[in-house]
Amino acid sequence: MGAMIDDSSYERYARGMEERVRPALAACRKEGWLDPSAAERRAGLEPAGGQLHYCAYDAAAFDALREDGATGAFHGCIVISHGFTEFAEKYDELAFYFLLAGYSVCVIDHRGHGKSARDVSDPALVWIDDWQRYAVDLACFAQTVGQSYASGQPLNLFAHSMGGGVGAAVLERHPMLFDKAVLSAPMVAPQTGMSMWLTRALVSLVCACGLGRRRVMFQKEFDPAAPPDLSRYELSSEARERWYHKLRCEHEEYRTYCASFGWVRQAMRLNRAILDRRACSEVETPILLFQAGHDLWVRNKPQDEFIRRVRDGGCDARLVRIEDSEHEIFSMPNAVYRPYLEQILDFYADPSVGAMDD
Question: Rounded to an integer, what distance in angstroms lies between the CA atom of residue 181 and that of residue 191?
Fold first, then answer.
């Protein structure tokens, strides 16, 4: 791959994004809307209503730009499943690198995030009635938009945090959907600051009292007038974190920031579903899971257990621990980000991975 965006200062990073990345993405981007209601009905869910927003980037249109470092060869499509309170545009830089490597890229705004439909009036709040809705939506997106952009070539998954937990559930329920999957600091289990059993008991009680749509204690909405709080991102690239903050300030729909008790309850249910031994044994897609050594948002031990159980089921599943990384590995400085990205691209391109299954 070619040179990465210079993140040595915010000014240089912003210039790279504004002058190189954004124009290139705009030239090959199509924004669209997905109606998942039919897929939800087939899965036994009552349709929640509303449509889901997505961005899709066509590798052929990108190749016509003749960007420095572009491969010029088409290798398929990568579907991106974003994390909690995130949005498609946050992945612009990563999408750009995937396009340079010859992949079309499709990114969906999960329900309650970005420009997609929301089920609560509070724009800062994330709530979901059933975690399975996320999984049905992602599978539907991959089966329709993702497959169309893959054009008969491999369809791969990149899934981060909450999106990684959802992605893991999709791999268990749709073993043949993706050719390869990268799970980046996936939310096999959220970090709640208390034990798992106590978290389950607390959120179940609160939801039973009809307070599932209330914000979890001490969580505040995003304040665009306040400077970015970088106290929890001491190792991350300051330039990238400031860029994400800028995007939230510019777009009201990107200011989703808080968990509801109902969302936490569903995250705990997702945890049990993902780690079910029978479900793990259904996975056939080769997995590369990245674990962050300084992760404040998800638990590492459940990731270890997931990989063990998938391996026990006979699937190729690998775990790479990046000791000096925080939760968002793609938000780290280039010294960490580049080798991480190179491992991802090598994994997608390696013909020996999963070859025994062919």
Answer: 23
Length of the chain: 358
Single-letter amino acid code for the residue at 112: G
User: Residue 321, SS3?
Assistant: strand
Retrieve residue 299's tokens. 């638990």
**Which domains are present in the chain?**
10-351 (3.40.50.1820)
Alpha carbon distances (Å) from 27 to 22, 31, 90: 9, 12, 18
CA distance 244 to 89: 9
CA–CA gap between residue 53 and residue 86 (Å, rounded): 13
Residues paired with 30 in a beta bridge: 56
Name the pTM for this structure.
0.98
Please write the tens of the pLDDT for every residue from 308-321: 999 999 999 999 99
CA distance 154 to 112: 29
- 93 in Cβ contact with 100 (< 8 Å): no
